[in-house]
Amino acid sequence: MTQFRAALVQMRSVRTVAPNIAAAEALIREAAASGAIYVQTPENTNIMEPDTEALFAALVPEAEDPTLARLRRVAAELGIWLHIGSLAIRQTPSMAANRAFLIAPDGSVAARYDKIHLFDVNLANGESYLESARVRPGAEAVTYDLPFGRIGFAICYDMRFPHLFRTLAKTGGAEILTAPAAFTKTTGEAHWHVLLRARAIETGAYMLAAAQGGTHETGRQTFGHSIVIDPWGRVIAEAGTEPCVITADVDVDQVALVRSRIPALDHDRPFGPPRSPPISVSRLKGAAE
Fold first, then answer.
1. Per the confidence metrics, is the pTM higher than 0.90?
2. How many domains does the chain have?
3. Which of 37, 217, 221, 268 could in theory staple to 185 by disulfide, Cβ–Cβ 3.0 to 4.6 A?
């Protein structure tokens, strides 16, 4: 089987866990009712809490996480592959993992991925984010063989690091790339589409990215625009900014076709570090004059 219906769940997560579980479950059920057998939720599915003390008061270790437990049961009930874009999982009293989960149709955890690249940024509009202050970065790229193709995992800020996606596609064999996100409105308007289309084009792979969208209760604005992009870089499904479900019919055979037309993954060549030529005496003399 190389053809399947994918669904992306767009959310607007709040500062407490229980309402997010309910919202995610309702949208996942809607996605499954549309015929999707793979469903993806966004980054921060379980909570978006900017206050560190309040966040860690709400977090628990993976084995105790109520969102994971509930969504595993939902996946098993619906018989779907459920990709939880990420959950904040307590690692220590002061550090968390930003962790994606792939849940199999029997409810078991098939794969985990911890976000590697952390969002430490001061934006021109005054927004400031220091993800590394409370999240431990991951250290491993992850792929998994679904019945309809091999999937590669990433989360949000990872999309700015093309070498991760090239590794997932070339070394890991991924045909379906993912980047569930909580992209800011400011950076999303400038970079969301171009980055995700570029990652799809560079690798000749599908890109699936579920997103947070709209104005959250803290006033933070996320970009939304959950998106499915085909291996040629064409957008085949896209949301707006409201919570919703979008679907797309994916044909993984298109990956091999596109890669045969532009076999860029086979054309890497080794090269050394950048080298500057020595400065000539005549150039030095001209500069002095």
1. yes
2. 1
3. 221
CA angle 225/228/229 to nearest 5° reads 115
Residue at 113 is within a domain: yes
Q: Report yes or no on 81 lying in a domain.
A: yes
Residue 208 is assigned to a structural domain of this protein: yes
pLDDT confidence tier of residue 54, bands split at 50, 70 and 90: very high
- Active-site residue among 30, 64, 77, 115? 115
- Kindly state whether residue 122 falls inside one of the protein's structural domains: yes
Distance from first CA to last CA of the chain, Å, rounded? 71
pLDDT at residue 288, as a whole number: 53
115 catalytic residue (yes or no): yes
Question: Pick from 85, 16, 1: which is nearest to 47 by CA?
Answer: 16
In the structure, what pLDDT confidence band is assigned to residue 211 with cuts at 50, 70 and 90?
very high
Q: What's the rounded Cα separation, in Å, for the pair 283 and 288?
A: 9
Active site residue 170: no
Domain with 144, as residue range(s), is: 3-268
The catalytic residue among 25, 30, 43, 202 is 43
Choose the catalytic residue: 25, 64, 127, 156: 156
